[in-house]
């Protein structure tokens, strides 16, 4: 198996790169989706979040009210750290199981694990390659406003709340510049796939 860690700032083109690699045959695991799975009603993770932050973070149907929780943790570093201490270990455990399952089903699989907080959460899977998507701040803000409907001040705050691009680049084996056209991003993802295939052939 060949395991790729894919990370990057908010609205930096991770999903675009992941989709392109899937088109080439990769298996995609999305940490955001896993984070939703581990907090489903009845999960130990959700119980721990309610114990920490109160019943106010639940909707009437017993599911997690993510926007409400987001309001609590977004501006409070301590609250965010407490939430991460609950969620990150659960996501790590689930991702480990899914990566193992993918390898058992196909020892030759290429798995792309898309982890926005790869640096912050200190994700320590044995990655063969770490890929970072990188876009200028103005491009990220523009995408958040146009594609996700945030107002510009909210969008800027979201980008600023994350770690710096330099910190991500420091752990990168490959940086994909997503500040230009979609075609430019795609061609870099295609080139990455060619390099991955060469590496895997050389190992066989």
From TrEMBL:
UniProt keyword annotations, A-Z: ATP-binding, Coenzyme A biosynthesis, Cytoplasm, Kinase, Nucleotide-binding, Transferase
Underlying gene: coaE
Residue numbers binding ATP: 11-16
Protein name (record): Dephospho-CoA kinase
Record has Transferase as a keyword: yes
EC number(s) on file: 2.7.1.24
Cellular localization per UniProt: Cytoplasm
Catalytic activity: 3'-dephospho-CoA + ATP = ADP + CoA + H(+)
Family the UniProt entry places it in: Belongs to the CoaE family.
One MF term in the entry's GO annotations: dephospho-CoA kinase activity
Main subcellular localisation: cytoplasm
PROSITE patterns (UniProt xref): DPCK
Keyword Calcium: no
Ranges that cross the membrane: none
Function: Catalyzes the phosphorylation of the 3'-hydroxyl group of dephosphocoenzyme A to form coenzyme A.
Pathway: Cofactor biosynthesis; coenzyme A biosynthesis; CoA from (R)-pantothenate: step 5/5
